[in-house]
Design goal:
5-stranded antiparallel beta sheet, Immunoglobulin-like, 745 residues, transmembrane, mainly beta, synapse, cell projection, single chain
Length: 745
């Protein structure tokens, strides 16, 4: 599985790309495509890559501008980086020949095969300066770059070298790296040292780097930020821009070289040169090409009408004009022979082969794209012709136009069927849209006949397409969610609870038939929500205080939310209640109805508190502790203050009264959420009185207030004080109210 892919070059219906294989960390393999861009063949392995800031990766390969088919690349093998050049789009790669003398004319002891020229192939971070290698379309054959001589590329050595015959011969021009700018089709080469110190001189050459002239472009040294030329390849005017200090504004200095040339060039001022590779071969990419350049002694301007290409002549085809075809590799022992890979079936038909057509099995070779050779050797002529067989369908896919897999009832949907491989003309396609609609199509993927449909009802629909012919079959499936947009969501939660008590959160979504909703729960200040597919969630609150709870419901087409606040107390007892089945008979799942019921039942329960207070004032509440000591429960003196009350037993009675008050409000309100609580369906609210009382509700919403008030008649108006005063030593409050049936609604 490749880790990264980068496009290197695209021209003449061919793609050059660099691909990093799973086993490579700092290198890429270079591939070239066939004319259709479908099959790729490897042309160079282990091209070096460098990771830049912001995770950018630069690959050491450069297309030489001006002459088609010429590339430079840095290959890294066993940690050693060497520079290679190709003249035929990667079929053959060779190391660069070293110069014979240094910049001072002294002989160099660098001889092949142990010593070569190596270049840094880096792009400049600054767009206003050249990279380490500079070429230009209007100056064919002229290459100037930074590098070193030796057995490998050395990072810190950046001597400057130049060639004017497209890499066949090189000359050293500087000992340090310079920024380069070509003017007048390469007739003037400008160089400024790449340094962090301020400068006021530049160098220029009018004889392809053989001699250099120093020019003071400013009287005050500046930090050079970039070089710009005026529009047009023929221009002789450039601008140096920079700053005098890091706090100053930009300084722009224009340099005009037109005064250095007294006249325009004529035909007698040019000389021709012929392109050859490092071996002296004149036929490159199937043709002989000659170019012209200005004589070293001619001081004239090439101008706008200058044309560098002179003549082209096709050559007869040879071994060098063919590459290995897809599925074949070049032999390491015999570079002219291509052999089939173990996985490649020589007689396998191409993917676009349809029944009734003819295809040719490859001989293992194909002519290099853009190669212009004619006649001579034809390594493709012995290809065998075959009739296209009937191929089974493969790679069947079904999708929706617009990629929307969640739609509303009644929406227009257009299904698209695509088949990657196999015959299509004789294939039948059976389409099942999941709602009872079925159809059979012939030649569906060729005619592009649309499949349009509307789903009436919400639901999940399985769409299936089966493709079948005499050779085989294939199948594709997708699921469509048809749902109406959500209107609202109601969060149901008890407004009061105790610390670390289990709390049920329930989201009621409208419309109730909404399907496949996802719920996002935010509790307190937590920015990370909890996700559930169910509309309820059990949680606990570890801290006392006020807690905000927000729920969002989403079904792929819409999103709604609701927020509630819960008060968390340190000591709080929850007693769950259940109600008879007819409570919601005419008002199912209506939050407002439950809210009204909650208020009325709370009112009923709070009316019992005065009776409890009366019993306490009458000293009728007591219990025994160990040793037979009788403890009397009474109300605390309200004038004694908290501190005084805490010193006597009266504080416990006050705590009990507070607890009963909280219970009277909280125990009922939990009614609204009881139906979502997991566990036993028998829910009780306990007091010592074993008499069963029914908490009834009206069956007609219009009579709710009257019937609920009548419900008070089912609860005793007077509490038996002797019952509350339990002389048996059991807890003071053991039971309250029990429902008439076990259905927790």
């Amino acid at each position: 599985c490749p880790q990264d892919v980068q496009i290197v070059s695209t021209d003449d219906n061919q793609v050059f790309l660099a691909l990093q294989e799973w086993y490579q960390s700092d290198t890429f393999n270079l591939y070239q495509s066939d004319p259709q861009g479908v099959y790729y063949s490897i042309v160079l392995e282990n091209v070096r890559s460098t990771k830049q800031p912001e995770e950018n990766i630069l690959i050491d390969i450069l297309e030489v501008r001006g002459i088609r088919g010429v590339f430079l690349a840095n290959q890294k093998i066993d940690g050693k980086v060497t520079t290679l050049i190709t003249y035929n789009k990667g079929q053959n790669w060779e190391p660069l020949a070293p110069p014979t003398t240094d910049m001072n004319g002294k002989p160099i002891s660098c001889k092949a095969p142990h010593c070569h020229l190596h270049l840094h192939l880096r792009w400049a971070d600054n767009p206003y300066v050249s990279g380490t290698v500079h070429t230009k379309d209007s100056a064919p054959g002229l290459i100037m770059g930074a590098g070193n001589l030796g057995s490998k590329l050395v990072e810190y050595k950046e001597e400057m070298y130049i060639t004017s015959d497209c890499g066949k011969t090189w000359r050293q021009v500087f000992e340090e790296e310079h920024h380069i700018l070509y003017l007048d089709h390469g007739g003037v080469i400008v160089a400024i040292k790449d340094t962090s110190i301020p400068l006021k001189i530049l160098k220029f050459s009018i004889d392809e780097g053989r001699t250099w002239t120093v020019h003071n472009f400013t009287s005050t040294s500046v930090f050079v930020d970039g070089l710009l030329s005026e529009p047009g390849d023929e221009t002789l005017v450039m601008t140096v821009f920079g700053h005098i200090s890091y706090r100053s504004d930009w300084e722009l200095v224009k340099v005009d070289f037109r005064q250095s040339f007294p006249r325009q060039c004529t035909e007698s001022d040019y000389v021709s040169w012929q392109l050859t590779d490092l071996q002296g071969e004149k036929c490159i990419m199937g043709q002989e090409r000659s170019f012209r350049k200005r004589k070293d002694t001619a001081f004239c301007i090439k101008g706008k009408s200058y044309i560098s290409a002179l003549t082209t002549k096709p050559c007869q085809c040879t071994e060098q004009d063919f590459n290995c075809d897809y599925g074949f590799e070049r032999s390491h022992t015999d570079g002219n022979h291509c052999f089939a890979d173990f996985w490649h079936n020589l007689d396998s038909p191409p993917e676009d082969c349809h029944l009734g057509k003819i295809y040719e099995s490859s001989t293992g070779y194909r002519k290099i794209i853009s190669n212009m050779c004619e006649g001579g050797l034809n390594k493709q002529q012995s290809a065998t012709q075959h009739s296209c067989p009937l191929l089974p369908p493969k790679g069947l896919q079904v999708s929706i136009k617009g990629q929307m897999l969640a739609v509303a009832p009644g929406d227009d949907i257009t299904f698209i069927v695509h088949q990657e491989k196999g015959d299509t003309s004789s294939t039948k396609y059976q389409v099942d849209l999941g709602d009872g609609v079925r159809a059979i199509y012939q030649n569906l993927t060729v005619t592009d006949e649309p499949i349009q449909h509307r789903y009436k009802n919400p639901g999940i629909y399985k769409v299936t397409v089966k493709a079948e012919n005499m050779a085989g079959h294939d199948e594709a499936t997708m699921y469509i969610q048809v749902t109406a947009p959500l209107q609202e969501v109601h969060l149901e939660v008890a407004p009061i609870t105790g610390r670390n008590h289990e709390v049920n959160l329930t989201a009621i979504v409208l419309p109730t038939e909404a399907n496949l909703s996802v719920f996002y729960w935010w509790i307190g200040d937590n920015l990370q929500p909890m996700l559930t597919l169910q509309n309820s969630l059990l949680t606990r609150f570890p801290e006392t205080g006020e807690v905000s709870i927000t729920v969002q419901a989403s079904n792929g087409r819409s999103m709604v939310q609701d927020t509630r606040t819960v008060q968390v107390y340190d000591n709080f007892q929850v007693i769950r209640l259940s109600f008879s089945m007819n409570l919601d008979r005419f008002n199912p799942n209506i939050p407002e109805w439950r809210e009204d019921i909650g208020q009325m039942v709370t009112k009923i329960l709070t009316k019992r508190i005065p009776a409890i207070i009366q019993a306490l004032n009458s000293n009728n509440v007591s219990f025994k502790v160990r040793g037979g000591i009788q403890v009397l429960v009474m109300l605390a003196d309200p004038d004694a203050g908290f501190y005084g009350a805490a010193k006597g037993p009266g504080v416990w009675a006050l705590a009990v009264i507070i607890l009963i008050s909280i219970f009277a409000t909280g125990s009922f309100i939990l009614y609204k959420f009881k139906r979502k609580l997991p566990g036993s369906r028998n829910v009780y609210a306990q007091m010592h009185n074993e008499k069963e009382q029914e908490m009834t509700s009206p069956v007609n919403h219009s009579e709710d207030t009257q019937h609920i008030i009548q419900g008070e008649e089912f609860i005793d108006d007077d509490l038996d004080s002797q019952t509350l005063g339990n002389a048996g030593g059991s807890p003071a409050f053991r039971s309250l109210i029990r429902t008439t049936n076990n259905h927790c609604y």
